[in-house]
Each structure stands twice: as structure tokens, then as C-alpha cells.
Design brief:
By secondary structure, this protein is mostly beta strands. The radius of gyration is 49 Å and the shape is rod-shaped. A hairpin with a 7-residue loop joins strand 6 and strand 7 (about 165-170). It starts with a helix and ends with a strand. It folds into two domains: about 5-80, no CATH class; about 140-215 and about 250-375, no CATH class. The strands form eight sheets. It has a six-stranded antiparallel sheet, with no helix packed on it. It has a four-stranded antiparallel sheet with strand order 7-6-9-20, with no helix packed on it. The chain has one helix spanning about 5-35, and strands spanning about 85-90, 100-105, 125-135, 140-150, 150, 155-160, 165-170, 175-180, 185-195, 195, 200-210, 220-230, 240-245, 255-260, 270-280, 285, 290, 295-310, 320, 330-335, 340-350, 355, 360, 365-375.
């Protein structure tokens, strides 16, 4: 019983120390909060929300890219007067778009104009493309192929005797091999009409296209390059749907832009549309409309003529001669040949067709793989 007052005093002391610790912690938090809000930064405090949980420091230069108040003036990034000469608030890139970026747009090609390199504060090359493909139209001309069916074959008369007196049939315009249509055995034959130039001869017509070369890396009238900061942009000091971004160089117009792959519609915050391409599809050619005049200058030479028992060739082949030198027909006698076939081999030579009709250039070089760049105006 003697020790109870001492125990009570010890418990009371511990409770007092605990209450004092809680009070000290609350006072420290209040001091920190006051320091973070202080305009004149008379207090040095650890400001909640800093990127590195470090302390804001009076007199420190504001870091305009970290989204926190670095110098205890209560102003963050773009809202801080220290940042405003080099930074500004800009609409953030809408869904699907990237940026903001700055755009270099150069015209005056071909060849494709060179564009400046990306430099600070926009050092990251985000897009290189071209517009306005430059090309020459095709040169077109009609041309004619070789002469087809330029000769008419000889006429061969067959006889049932071996002296070319008892005529059986006349096979006209023989070329290749055909039935003689004689129902009796044939013992002689003669060429009665030599080969001749055919009025049905023709040449195939086509349009010859000469397509000038087009270089996808050179033949453009306009070049574009989009340059970004190379880092994520924060909203520090800006209103909703805006980001704090470096001011573009004064030489650049229209200023800040966003971009998206494909042919896209521009948002209201970046209404000025530019389209750049990575390549092109070349469809240049020539239209039809060509034809050929009838052939001229054809020579028709008879190589051989024969009567045989089958077609082509076969037993009892008998080669005939005659009329090659412009003389009279000659009778060729041979062994009896039942159900005869007549054949002739020709050698057309020379001749050509003059091209006629009209042809002209068609097609284009259509740009492909677009990227849409939308800029503030």
C-alpha cells in the first residue's frame, strides 16, 4: 500500500508526455502547411505534393516542368512569373493525338525542301513527312507488232490420173494441212495459184508508255517536321485540359500543333489541318485507242506443198514444185493416195503495219501513309 502513490504518478507522467508529443506533431504540421502557403516564404517547410518530396526553398528558381511549387511563392510552373517568359499553357492533345509539338513546314520543291533540325526546347524529332508529290506525265505512243496472217496459201488441184488430166478437186488457199475432199485415190497434183499477200493480214496494236522515274524521297513540293519536348507534359499552373509547355520559337507559325497517324479530323482546339505523307502509289500509264493500218511490204514464199494420206504428214508424202519462178504450173505425179490431204508451208517475211489511232497519258502519283498535323490558329 505504501507504493501506490508512486505508481499513479508514473502513469500520469507517461500520459502527459504522450499528449505533448501529439500537440508537437500538430504544431509541426501547421507550420509546414503555413510555410507551403506563405507568399513571402518566411518559413522553410517540406511542401506536400512535390515530385521528390523535397522542400520548397525561398529564392530557388522555379522548375517549370515538375508540377510543383519549388520556391515557396504558392505558384506552380506556368503560373509562376519566373516561368512565363519561356512557358505557356496550351490545350492538351485530345485522345488519339500526340503533342503539343512545333511544326516546321517548308515549300518550294522539288526536290523536297530541307527542314531545320529539332532543337531545344523541342529537341525530339516526332514526325518527318512530305506533301504535294511532283512528277511528270507518261510519254505515250502507239506501236504495232509483227504481221499476222499476211499471206494466202496456194491453190492445189488434184487428179485421179498421173498426168494431171482427170481433175478431182481444187483445194484453195492451203496453209498448213487440210482435207482435199477428193473421194477417189489421187495420183497427181499441181499448184495452180501461188501464195499471195492477204488482205486480212494485221498487226496487234498497243500503247507504249514511257514513265519518268519518281523518287519517293526526293520528288515532293513540301516537307514537314514535327518536334516535341521528348517528355511528358504536366498541367502545372494551368487550367483543366491544359498543359504547361515551352513557348515555341517566334519564327514558327502557326505555333503549337498535335498530330495523329492517318487522315483525321482536327479538334476545335487545334483547327488548322496539315497532312504529310511517307510515300506514294504510282499509277501512271497510257490510255488505249491505238490501232494499226493494214500491213505493207509482205513477201510470201512457198517452202513446200504436198499430198499425203494423213494430216499432218503420213505415208505417201509427195512434194510438189512449180510456180516458184513465175512459170507455168507443173504436174507432179506420185503413187496413188487414197483420201488425200493437201498441205503447204509458207514463209511470210518483211512487212509492217503503220500505227494509227490516238493514246494519251493517264494515272498519277497518289500520296500514301498520311499523318494529320493539327495546329492552333
Amino acid at each position: 500500500m505504501i507504493g501506490r502513490p508512486n505508481v499513479a504518478r508514473a502513469v500520469g507522467a507517461r500520459r502527459c508526455r504522450h499528449l505533448l508529443a501529439i500537440l508537437a506533431s500538430a504544431i509541426a504540421a501547421a507550420v509546414i502547411a503555413a510555410g507551403c502557403r506563405a507568399v513571402d516564404c518566411t518559413e522553410t517547410a517540406t511542401c506536400a505534393g512535390s515530385a521528390d518530396a523535397g522542400a520548397c526553398e525561398p529564392g530557388r528558381m522555379e522548375d517549370c516542368t515538375n508540377g510543383v511549387d519549388d520556391n515557396c511563392d504558392g505558384l506552380v510552373d506556368c503560373a509562376d512569373p519566373q516561368c512565363q517568359p519561356g512557358y505557356r499553357c496550351a490545350p492538351e492533345a485530345p485522345a488519339g493525338f500526340q503533342g503539343p509539338v512545333v511544326l516546321y513546314d517548308e515549300s518550294g520543291g522539288p526536290p523536297a525542301p530541307s527542314v531545320p533540325p529539332c532543337e531545344a526546347p523541342y529537341p525530339s524529332d516526332q514526325l518527318d513527312g512530305y506533301d504535294a508529290p511532283s512528277f511528270q506525265a507518261s510519254s505515250c505512243a502507239c506501236q504495232c507488232g509483227s504481221v499476222d496472217r499476211g499471206c494466202i496459201g496456194p491453190a492445189i488441184r488434184t487428179f485421179t490420173d498421173n498426168t494431171c488430166r482427170n481433175s478431182c478437186n481444187l483445194a484453195s488457199a492451203i496453209e498448213g494441212c487440210a482435207s482435199d475432199a477428193c473421194t477417189q485415190p489421187v495420183q497427181s497434183a499441181m499448184i495452180v495459184t501461188p501464195p499471195a499477200v492477204s488482205a486480212a493480214g494485221s498487226c496487234s496494236a498497243s500503247a507504249q508508255a514511257t514513265v519518268p522515274a519518281w523518287d519517293a524521297a526526293r520528288d515532293w513540293g513540301r516537307s514537314g517536321r514535327a518536334c516535341g519536348t521528348g517528355r511528358s507534359l504536366l498541367r502545372g499552373g494551368c487550367s483543366t485540359a491544359q498543359v504547361c509547355t515551352p513557348r515555341p520559337p517566334s519564327t514558327l507559325a502557326p505555333g503549337l500543333c498535335v498530330f495523329e497517324s492517318g487522315d483525321a479530323s482536327c479538334p476545335a482546339t487545334y483547327p488548322g489541318k496539315h497532312t504529310y505523307f511517307a510515300g506514294g502509289s504510282d499509277s501512271r500509264s497510257c490510255t488505249g485507242g491505238c490501232r494499226c493500218d493494214p500491213p505493207t511490204g509482205v513477201t510470201c514464199t512457198l517452202i513446200s506443198a504436198a499430198i499425203s494420206s494423213s494430216c499432218p504428214g503420213g505415208s505417201g508424202i509427195s512434194t510438189m514444185t512449180g510456180l516458184e519462178d513465175g512459170g507455168s504450173p507443173k504436174c507432179s505425179a506420185f503413187s496413188s493416195t487414197p483420201t488425200p490431204f493437201a498441205s503447204a508451208t509458207l514463209a511470210p517475211s518483211g512487212g509492217s503495219c503503220a500505227p494509227a489511232g490516238t493514246t494519251g497519258p493517264t494515272g498519277t502519283v497518289a500520296p500514301t501513309t498520311p499523318t494529320t498535323v493539327c495546329c492552333a490558329q
